[in-house]
Write a structure and sequence with these properties.
GO terms for molecular function: lyase activity. It comes from Saccharomonospora glauca K62. This is Lactoylglutathione lyase-like lyase. The protein is of the alpha+beta class. It has one domain: 2,3-Dihydroxybiphenyl 1,2-Dioxygenase, domain 1 (Roll). The chain is 16% helix and 33% strand. The strands form 2 sheets. The protein has an 8-stranded mixed sheet. The protein has an 8-stranded mixed sheet with strand order 6-7-8-5-9-12-11-10, covered by helices on one side.
Length: 321
């Protein structure tokens, strides 16, 4: 297997009301809205990208928020947990903060020598904060609501739920270049490189669980990193030679993407690290204005009329703060 991902690129989920979604991820979790655009396949809805200051690969959770979207069903064939990395000893602060914001949390538990706090977003998406004992060197986005010493550093890991692990494990190791790290009961951990925050996926085997239904409150797909388009093109050819049904390379403006399903049913993506989110607006202004790809610009007036206005905190754009 000549191609090995260096870790997670982003996770994309489905939400309901976009204003409620933005309020939660900006004010409650303290992330930055780094791009306000639309679903290129359904431009009547937003595509909102949350991450660190620049939207670096590995920090991103993105949403398609449909106001009337039905509630999804968590189950096999999908990513059932998205975890963020926070500093060690921060979970007590986070538990108090979330509860002050009206978010119910579970108790802090220890798993694989990491402390974990579980909670859900307003649409029911299952989330976790993980304090990695060896730390996370990534710089956080500092906001008044979530100070830097406690702030989210980026994605920590995702959990894929499957009925059986063997074929999924084969795709992760042979298709993405991950390595099997360990097994604990019905949970199998795989890592990219040396593992750690942003480079981990857990496969949870639940043979009797129902099939998941992707709608509001569930993950749509999980994206893994490729350094550039040349690597992505060769990677796509190798996957096709292995008999994997892969899409053509798609232009997502801020990266290039290919999509395929792992045998357990979860939709996966390989996304390039470049060109990044400053390709169409300056760093300090990320997320402020609605950005459309060139092929949708002629319909801007109609698209803007369909989208509700978002209430962004001033600190999302330091220039205007």
């Amino acid at each position: 297997m000549p191609f090995r991902t260096s870790g997670l690129h982003h996770v994309t989920a489905i939400a309901g009301d976009p204003r409620r979604n933005a309020d939660f991820y900006l004010r409650t979790l303290g992330l930055r809205l780094v791009k306000t655009t639309v679903n290129f396949d359904d431009p009547g809805t937003y595509h909102l990208y949350y991450g660190d200051e620049s939207g670096a690969p590995g920090t991103l959770l993105t949403f398609f928020p449909w106001r009337d979207a039905p509630r999804g069903r968590v189950g096999t064939g999908q990513a059932t947990m998205t975890s963020f990395s926070v500093p060690e000893h921060s979970l007590g602060w986070w538990k108090r903060h979330l509860e002050d914001m009206g978010v119910s949390t579970g108790r802090v538990v220890n798993r694989d020598d990491e402390d974990v706090l579980l909670f859900r977003d307003p649409d029911g998406l299952q989330l976790a904060l993980v304090a990695h004992p060896r730390g996370d060197p990534r710089n956080p986005w500092d906001t008044p609501s979530v100070p830097a010493e406690h702030a989210i550093r980026g994605l920590h890991s995702v959990t894929l739920s499957v009925n059986r692990e063997d074929a999924t494990a084969g795709m992760l190791t042979e298709g993405l270049g991950l390595e099997f790290a360990r097994e604990e009961h019905n949970r199998f951990r795989f890592i990219a490189g040396e593992g750690g925050p942003g480079a981990t996926v857990d496969v949870l085997v639940t043979p009797d669980a129902p099939r998941g239904l992707v709608a509001a409150g569930t993950v749509h797909h999980v994206a893994w990193r490729a350094p550039d388009e040349k690597t992505q093109t060769a990677w796509r050819e190798e996957l096709m030679e292995r008999g994997v049904g892969v899409t053509s390379i798609m232009d997502r403006q801020y990266f290039r993407s290919i999509y395929f399903r792992e045998p357990g049913g979860t939709l996966l993506e390989i996304a390039t690290d470049r060109p990044g989110f400053t390709v169409d607006e300056p760093l300090l202004e990320l997320g402020r204005a609605l950005k459309l790809p060139p092929w949708l610009e002629p319909d801007r007036q109609r698209i803007e009329a369909m989208l509700p206005e978002l209430d962004l905190p001033s600190e999302n754009n330091p220039v205007s703060a």
